[in-house]
Amino acid sequence: MKKLLVLIGIVAMFGTSAAFAVSVPDPLDPAVMHIGNPPSTGTYLYNGNEVRPISNTYLGIQENGNGQPALVDPLLMIIGVPGADSGYQAPSITLSTGTGAAGGANAYSGTWNVTTGYAGSFGPAADDLYDWLGLNPSGNASNRFVNWHDADLAVNNIDAAFFGIFVYTLNDTMITGGNTIGVTFGAPLENGTFVVAYGQDSRETPHSYTTPFTEAGLTTTPPVPEPGTMILLGAGFLGLAVWGKRRRNA
């Protein structure tokens, strides 16, 4: 009887070990949100494998990985504009699926102005962007000021002292693994603007889905002046030409 009990104990021990050996998805390694035109395409702009080029009027947000779960509302799109303060007006947006706007109710423990989306100045003393915004759970920690600064300096010759952060809330996107949401801006983004995204799934203990620095989007084309500005510039050049001609004829 004693030998039988020992045998049962050994079997139970190995059975327990086998149960603990079952693979469990890592909650700190979710699918990442790629930004691009379209996402996951285009030559990397920095260091050969970091930062994707985006247009200043359109981009795509992709939840990378077929089979990954659907994300809940809202999906957050976050832009970092070099040198911008609370007076900057974040452009309106139109989505391929759903609706979105700068601001919106604070979510996931993050804080920003619910009307303008302005969240403050992201500078050298800040932690990585997702922690700095207060989002919980946080996300990929590679979006640090020094990375953004150095990439913008190398790509656009912009030596930013800080980035003004603006948060957009996107609803009814129904984004899920492998899907892309198109974002069209009502006015061009400033040159040197970074764009990343943040989302959560619907698990009892939600996982965050975030953009690593390698897949962040960066604008590289200065906005085209508005028609009114072009007219004023043209009138100015015409005036200078007339003034110069009069001087020569005097």
TrEMBL record:
It comes from the Bacteria. The lineage of its organism: Bacteria, Pseudomonadati, Thermodesulfobacteriota, Desulfuromonadia, Geobacterales. InterPro entries: Ice-binding_C (IPR013424). Keywords: Signal. Pfam families: PEP-CTERM. Residues 1-21 form the signal peptide. NCBIfam families: PEP_CTERM (TIGR02595). Residues 223-246 form the Ice-binding protein C-terminal domain. It comes from Geomonas paludis. This is PEP-CTERM sorting domain-containing protein.
